[in-house]
C-alpha cells in the first residue's frame, strides 16, 4: 500500500481558528511520522501513534487502513480485520482495501469471508493482475485447483510474471494438464531460470512417465539450488527406479549438507540396504531414528537391514525399545521391538527366556489383528519350542491375512512334517517354491514400501506467497 500525504485537519469542520488549524497540522505530522515508522518496520511505534489519532479521525480511510496493516504486521489479526473493515466501509470501491481485508480475514481463520472480499476486489477491477492472481492463489491454497486456473491465466495474460506463472504451472500439473505445464515452465525459464522450476519440471516429466528426463531435471535443480527438498527429490527418484549407487551418492551428499534431516538419512539407509550394504544401512537408519525417534517410517527399513546385519544388536534393540516406549499403542512398534530383542538376544544366549518376546507379539496382534507378520513370528516362536499345536494355527492365521508370505508356507510345511501330515506339508512346500520362483510378491511389496516412504516424505510444491 502506497501512502501519500493527507491533511487530517481538512476533514474537520471548516472555519476553525488558527489555534485549531495548528493542532490539526500537528496531527497530520503525527500521521506522516506513523507512515515513516511503518515503512521502517517499527510497527509498535506506528501503532501507538495511529491509535492516538483515532479520536480525531473516525472517518478517515487512510488512518484506519494503515492501522489495519500495522496490526496485520504485528500478527494481531482480529484488530487488523476490524480496522480494515472500517476502511472498506469508508471506501467501498477500493480494490486494494478489499484485498487487504481479505488477507486479514484469511489470517484470522475466516476463509469464506476472505473469499468474498477477494471476489469483490475482482469485481471492481476484473482485468487487474493482482485481483486475478490473489483470488487464484487463494483457490490454490484452498485446494480448489480447477477454480484457480482461469484466474491465474487471466493474471498471466495481464502481466506475465514468474510467481503467477509458477502457480499456474503447478495448477496444470495437479490437474494433469502436462503439456500446458511443460510449455509454461519452459517459458518461465526465459524470465528466471531457477532450481525450483527444474524441480517442478522433474515432477511434470515423472508424472508423464519420462523417467530419464525427470532425473535430469531433478539433478539440475539440485545443482542450481542444493536445498534439502531438491536433494531428496533427486535421490528418491533414483531410488524409486533402482539406480542405487547414484542414489547413495546423492543421499550421502544430502546428509553431509543437512546432517539433521531424518528423511535424507532414511533415504541413504534405504539405498544402502537395496544395494546390499547392510551394516552401513543400519548405521544410517540408527541416525535417522535418533533425529526423529517418533517417526515410524525409518523403523520398517531398520528392521529389514538389521535382519541381514545383526552386528549392531544392542544399538538396534535400544532404538526399538525407545520407539515402543514412545508409542505403546502402536502395533508395529511392539512388533519391531519383539523381533529385534529375539534376534539379538538369541544370537548371544540360546536359552533366553522368550516370555517377553511372546508378550510383545501377542500385544501387537491385539492392537492390530491384521498384522500378518506378527502371527508368523509368533508361530516361529512356538515352533522353535516344538509346540506345534500352537504354531500351526498362528501360521494359518498369517496366511489367511497374506497368502503370499512364502516363509509362512515353508514353516507351516515343516510343522506338518513334524506332526505326520506329509501330504499337507508337500502342498505348503509347493506353494513356497512357486512363490520363491516368482519372487514377484516380495519385490512388489518392497517397491510399494519405498514408494510409500518417498511420497510421504516429499514436500509437495507450494504456490508462491
Automatic annotation (TrEMBL):
Highest taxon of the lineage: Bacteria
Keyword Magnesium: no
Keywords on record: Repeat, TPR repeat
Signal peptide coordinates: none
Record's keyword annotation contains Repeat: yes
TPR repeats: 61-94, 95-128, 129-162, 262-295, 372-405
InterPro entries: TPR-like_helical_dom_sf (IPR011990), TPR_2 (IPR013105), TPR_rpt (IPR019734)
Stated name of the protein: Tetratricopeptide repeat protein
Organism: Alloacidobacterium dinghuense
Organism classification: Bacteria, Pseudomonadati, Acidobacteriota, Terriglobia, Terriglobales
Amino acid at each position: 500500500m502506497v501512502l501519500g500525504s493527507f491533511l487530517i485537519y481538512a476533514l474537520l469542520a471548516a472555519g476553525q481558528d488558527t489555534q485549531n488549524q495548528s493542532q490539526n497540522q500537528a496531527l497530520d505530522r503525527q500521521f506522516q511520522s506513523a507512515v515513516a515508522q511503518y515503512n521502517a518496520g517499527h510497527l509498535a511505534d506506528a501503532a501507538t501513534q495511529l491509535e492516538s489519532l483515532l479520536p480525531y479521525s473516525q472517518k478517515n480511510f487512510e488512518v484506519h487502513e494503515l492501522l489495519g496493516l500495522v496490526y496485520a504486521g504485528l500478527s494481531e489479526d482480529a484488530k487488523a480485520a476490524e480496522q480494515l473493515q472500517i476502511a472498506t466501509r469508508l471506501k467501498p470501491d477500493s480494490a486494494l482495501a478489499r484485498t487487504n481485508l481479505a488477507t486479514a480475514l484469511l489470517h484470522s481463520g475466516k476463509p469464506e469471508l476472505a473469499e468474498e472480499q477477494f471476489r469483490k476486489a475482482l469485481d471492481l477491477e476484473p482485468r487487474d493482475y493482482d485481483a486475478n492472481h490473489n483470488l487464484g492463489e487463494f483457490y490454490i491454497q484452498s485446494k480448489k485447483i480447477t477454480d484457480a486456473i482461469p484466474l491465474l491465466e487471466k493474471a498471466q495474460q495481464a502481466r506475465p510474471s514468474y510467481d503467477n506463472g509458477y502457480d499456474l504451472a503447478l495448477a496444470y500439473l495437479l490437474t494433469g494438464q502436462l503439456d500446458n505445464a511443460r510449455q509454461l515452465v519452459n517459458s518461465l525459464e526465459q524470465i528466471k531460470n531457477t532450481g525450483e522450476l527444474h524441480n517442478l519440471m522433474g515432477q511434470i516429466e515423472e508424472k508423464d512417465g519420462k523417467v530419464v528426463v525427470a532425473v535430469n531435471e531433478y539433478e539440475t535443480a539440485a545443482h542450481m539450488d542444493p536445498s534439502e527438498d531438491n536433494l531428496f527429490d533427486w535421490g528418491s527418484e533414483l531410488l524409486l527406479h533402482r539406480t542405487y549407487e547414484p542414489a547413495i551418492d546423492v543421499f550421502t551428499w544430502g546428509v553431509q549438507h543437512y546432517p539433521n534431516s531424518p528423511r535424507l538419512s532414511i533415504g541413504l539407509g534405504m539405498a544402502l540396504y537395496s544395494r546390499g550394504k547392510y551394516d552401513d544401512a543400519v548405521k544410517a537408519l540408527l541416525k535417522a531414528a535418533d533425529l526423529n525417534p517418533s517417526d515410524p517410517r525409518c523403523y520398517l527399513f531398520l528392521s529389514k537391514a538389521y535382519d541381514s546385519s545383526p552386528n549392531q544388536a544392542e544399538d538396534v534393540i535400544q532404538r526399538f525399545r525407545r520407539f515402543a516406549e514412545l508409542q505403546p499403542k502402536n502395533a508395529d512398534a511392539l512388533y519391531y521391538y519383539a523381533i529385534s530383542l529375539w534376534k539379538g538376544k538369541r544370537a548371544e544366549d540360546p536359552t533366553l527366556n522368550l516370555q517377553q518376546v511372546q508378550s510383545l507379539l501377542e500385544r501387537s496382534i491385539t492392537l492390530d489383528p491384521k498384522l500378518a507378520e506378527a502371527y508368523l513370528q509368533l508361530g516361529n516362536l512356538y515352533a522353535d519350542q516344538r509346540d506345534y499345536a500352537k504354531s500351526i494355527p498362528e501360521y494359518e492365521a498369517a496366511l489367511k491375512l497374506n497368502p503370499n508370505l512364502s516363509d509362512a508356507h515353508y514353516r507351516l510345511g515343516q510343522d506338518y512334517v513334524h506332526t505326520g501330515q506329509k501330504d499337507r506339508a508337500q502342498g505348503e512346500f509347493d506353494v513356497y517354491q512357486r512363490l520363491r520362483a516368482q519372487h514377484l510378491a516380495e519385490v512388489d511389496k518392497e517397491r510399494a514400501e519405498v514408494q510409500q516412504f518417498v511420497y510421504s516424505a516429499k514436500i509437495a510444491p507450494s504456490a508462491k506467497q
